[in-house]
Amino acid sequence: MAMAMNVSPCFCVASNRRSGNRVRAVASEDLVFSKIKDDKVKLGGSDLEVTRLGIGAWSWGDTSYWNNFEWDDRKMKAAKAAFDTSVDCGITFFDTAEVYGSRFSFGAINSETLLGRFIKERKVKDPEVEVAVATKYAALPWRLGRQSVLTALKDSLNRLGLSSVELYQLHWPGIWGNEGYIDGLGDAVEQGLVKAVGVSNYDESKLRNAYKKLKERGVPLAANQVNYSLIYRQPEENGVKAACDELGVTLIAYSPMAQGVLTGKYTPENPPSGPRGKIYTPEFLTKLQPLLKRIKEIGQSYSKTNTQVILNWLLAQENVLPIPGAKNSQQAEEFAGALGWRLTSEEINELRSLAQDIIPLGFAQTIGK
């Protein structure tokens, strides 16, 4: 990959602080941070170009799954710092949804509202900054027809404070009414409310149907956002990854670090709290240790952290755009260090082999949304 001569302002990449190491990128390292923002990819067959790595905003404002069921000003400032640091490092693609940060949860604030606020504040300081926003339509059972998609999209735009978004996705397949939802996506493109459209949590059959129906209107299906990580490879096993590759649909990978468990910060003695603790049990974390050990060893050979290795592994699968969730500046800075280098084929295959029999208990495809 050709590198531009301009160097990104984001040089220092935070490492796993438990290891006591601090990883620093330097210009002699093949200019690994040479203008990340210039290294963009097209989403599927659309004309939309975004950074090869995005940021997931699911945790922003959430009090039902993340943040220990509370949201306060300290967490707000940390999320704002995560946004600003991401932009500073050249990562300008942000994924949110209308159901993130439920308005019905005590203390919660909608993620779209926060993202819109962060963008507005950033533009005051840097009017030329360009941020690509992806959000999602919740296919709730009482929502029917194409107009429901447009109505929800306009509500999202109002919360974001924007006249349009780059990517609008159906968050999950509806119990019924899916054809109407797809029509709504096409209408949104034709009305100039979005630049590209996608789906999320769609299996191979529903993915192909959505692709075909949009194609009949001359609208490309840009992406399918699904749960995908080194230890959750169901998209490879159920035909979704192969279908995305065949149809030219970008696979956006959510929970790319398996909700933090692949970073190495959790151990059998220190499992995650809340709902994640039911998935990542001490027994499971015990089985995970050999894989985590090897990830760390490979990372040390590149002066990279576990997080940077596992994100790089996903990037190496091709046609995959990971969107790790950033709660603070340090995490956002670390994510940038997954770009600008590549694991060897041997390392990619070795990690896949070590992870082959590791299956999180009760880990359904919709977990992580």
UniProtKB/TrEMBL annotation:
Residues 52-354 form the NADP-dependent oxidoreductase domain. GO terms for cellular component: cytoplasm. One of its GO terms (molecular function) is oxidoreductase activity. InterPro entries: AKR, Aldo-Keto_reductase, Aldo/ket_reductase_CS, NAD(P)_OxRdtase_dom_sf, NADP_OxRdtase_dom. Keywords: NADP, Oxidoreductase. The keyword NADP applies. It comes from the Eukaryota. This is NADP-dependent oxidoreductase domain-containing protein. It comes from Populus deltoides.
